[in-house]
Amino acid sequence: MPRYHFVVRVYDHTHGDPEGVDLPNHEAATEHGHRIVRELREDGYQNAALVVHDETGQLIHSITS
């Protein structure tokens, strides 16, 4: 199963994801990323951005709130 990494940028701070998450495909990784951004918005982080990379470092998806 592929591993995906979710890097979150809030204001001027970046939160890396060195461990990543095993997910079945790009679509599942994109859905997981949208869920993360939704939760950040609910917690008051309106200016969050998230980038999803696969295990090779390839950009899969970018999400801004």
Structural account:
- Strands 1, 2, 3, 4 and 5 form a 5-stranded antiparallel beta sheet that branches.
- The chain has 1 helix and 5 strands.
- With 65 residues, it is of the alpha+beta class.
- The longest helix has 17 residues, at 26-42.
- It is globular and about 35 Å long.
- It has one domain (3-64).
Number of strands: 5
Radius of gyration: 11 Å
Give the overall pLDDT as a whole number: 94
In terms of structural class, how would the helical and strand content be classed?
alpha+beta
Shape: globular
Q: Which spans have pLDDT < 50 for at least 5 consecutive residues?
A: none
Report the end-to-end length measured between terminal Cα atoms.
28 Å
Helix content: 25-40%
Instruction: Write the element-wise H/E pattern from the N-terminal end onward.
Output: EEEHEE
Largest sheet, in brief, is: 5 strands, antiparallel
Total of helices: 1
Q: Provide the β-strand percentage band.
A: 35-45%
Structural domains: how many: 1
SSE order and pairing:
Elements (H helix, E strand, L loop, with lengths): L2 E8 L2 E3 L5 E2 L3 H17 L5 E7 L4 E6 L1
Brief write-up:
With 65 residues, the chain is α+β, with helices and mostly antiparallel strands. It has 1 helix and 5 strands.
Features:
65 residues, alpha+beta, 5-stranded antiparallel β-sheet, 40% strand
